[in-house]
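Issue: ligand-bound run for S-adenosyl-L-homocysteine - logging full I/O for the record.

Environment: standard queue, default settings, no custom constraints.

Inputs:
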Amino acid sequence: MNTNINLSILNSKINLLNLSPKKMQLFLTSMGAKNFTSEQIMKWIYNYHCYDFNKMLNISKIIRQKLNQNSYINISNFSEEKISSDGTIKWITSLKNQKVETVYIPEEKRSTLCISSQIGCSLKCDFCATGKQGFNRNLTVSEIVSQILQAKKKLKNKKITNIVFMGMGEPLLNLNNVVTVLEIILNKNGFGLSKRRITLSTAGIIPAIDKLSQKIDVNLAVSLHASNNSIRDLIMPINKKYNIESLLNSVSRYLKNSSANHNGVTIEYVMLKNINDSIENAYELADILKKIPSKINLIPWNSFKNSNFISSTTNRINTFANILRNKGFNTTIRKNRGKDINAACGQLTGNVINYSKNNL
Ligand code: SAH
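Outputs:
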């Protein structure tokens, strides 16, 4: 038994929503509970939305008393809801003057929840509204998990079939908390989703991609957005630290250890007129990806206030896609969902008080 964990968490009351399934078990057995009690508590929280220990009647009275003395369950509530004409829903969580956003995207065959991992983002990608807001802090496990719990509750019987880390923030710069959330999503007493239904999107934090690969297996999506380093340097400052070649090498390493990515990595490519959308760029992209099992998702750029970019035309996006398809790549064009409520990719601005300069 890990006594360090026990001592540190028993010193002050802890929020059970911050615990991984393993830590939950250690916490409970340290109070003298049976091994299966943590599974029961997880079911109460993640499946029955019960946050009051006194109502968990299959848990012994003495353990319920100890839980009340040493812990609590504190969920961060949604404060606002906006529903798009296409059925997309955006929820806002207000956290001490800051706001983060969660988006639900229902489709015919699946329903995806897009969650945020940070308040703001430090990466400053030029074409992204979240990046322009600056960075405040990482979200806690509890704040991330609350987004899923709240959405599940709001949606009543409508199922969330997929979860994507594509909301505000760079999930791999909040690696430990994000891994704990993934453990809860994958756990059968947690949200019980299969690893193939979870996608983590990253702008390419190479050491964290390697660490992630040691810790957990989920679908990886990479925001590449350029076919060469000079374009990527221009629109994504992170490229100066981790360039395309080293990023694609780390993706290959990740794929070697992963069974979730059976169709390869998802390459995200935002279509910016006259920046990265030429015919040459399409051929160049096919060339740099030829050794990486991948599917390519072209994203029409969504505009936001004070930005100078222009989205590529539909014609150009189709031409670009066809070149990639002819080269053998499974290529899709992302549908613009929730644009009327600013819930589309890169439009999530929340409300961020920018404290830290840059944590790159
Ligand atoms: N930081 C992570 C997670 C964000 S996911 C990442 O970079 O992957 C959001 C996706 O939408 C990313 O691919 C991002 O580059 C893209 N995006 C950002 N701004 C956009 C915009 N205005 N229009 C379309 N896509 C955008």
